[in-house]
Amino acid sequence: QVQLQESGPGLVKTSKTLSLTCSVSGGSINSGGYYWSWLRQLPGKGLEWIANIHYSGTSYQNPSLRSRLTTSIDTSNNHFSLRLNSVTAADTAVYYCARGLGVTAFDVWGQGTTVTVSS
Amino acid sequence: QSVLTQPPSASGTPGQRVTISCSGSSSNIGSNTINWYQQLPGTAPKLLIYTNTQRPSGVSDRFSASKSGTSASLAISGLQSEDEADYYCAAWDDSLTLVIFGGGTKLTVL
Questions:
Q1: A46: nearest CB among B47, B91, B103
Q2: Which residues of B touch A109 (CB under 8 A)?
Q3: Percent of chain A scored above 90 by pLDDT?
């Protein structure tokens, strides 16, 4: 079955760029109508959606993050990526990648990776 | 404060049936499908219900959901200790143009 795994630095300095990659195994990133998604969970808080991207290039992004956000998909290497620039402590969170059955139903999740933003 | 409103907590005893509500508006629940997630402590969320009432393969039939107008609810029957978790509803919001989550409901099995 499809599995997702996030990777990237656990510590990012304030004002720098947070970069994460989600590796997809057990299935092709360009098969089916799936969206590939990023979400996060701030410490002790609920879930926040960041973005969805389809292998065709169609993407949806959280308007509150859009100005700082870049998402991409690499079908050759079966992974997708997130870049969030100008980070602050408010971006400290557990970041999850997920597969979307459409835009809002995330049926497969990575285990999550904790990213701390600190000076 | 979340656009989708859930009670912060719910509780029940083993074997009992509990429901968790999710209240929204015409721009989200009223015009789009809703999904429910279960998050056990220290783990990633798990899709419990999609497209209002559908259970993914492998999800127990003790979980069911309904939607009416701008509100939805998740029901858990035959409550078990392993159901103790946080539960979130989620939907697309046409006005905000983003996926929104409820604030989450912490379910305690007494």
A1: B103
A2: 44-46
A3: 90
Q: How far is B49 from chain A (nearest CA, A)?
A: 8
- CB-CB contact of A24 with A101 (8 Å): no
∠ at Cα A33 (A32, A36), nearest 5°? 105
Residue A22: its pLDDT value, please? 98
Instruction: Give the pLDDT confidence of A73-104 residue by residue, as tens digits.
Output: 999 999 999 999 999 999 999 999 999 998 89
Measured between beta carbons, the chain A residues lying within 8 angstroms of B103 are 46
CA distance A111 to B44: 6
State how far residue B98 is from chain A, nearest Cα, in angstroms: 6
Span B37-64, pLDDT tens digits: 999 999 999 999 999 999 999 999 999 9
Mutation choice for A interface testing from B47, B48, B93, B100 by most A CBs within 10 A: B47
What was the pLDDT predicted at A102?
86
- Say yes or no for a CB contact (<8 Å) between A62 and B2: no
Q: What is the 3-state secondary structure (H, E, C) of chain A?
A: CCEEEEECCCEEECCCCEEEEEEEECCCCCCCCCEEEEEEECCCCCEEEEEEECCCCCEEECCCCHHHEEEEEECCCCEEEEEECCCCHHHCEEEEEEEECCCCCEEEECCCEEEEEEC
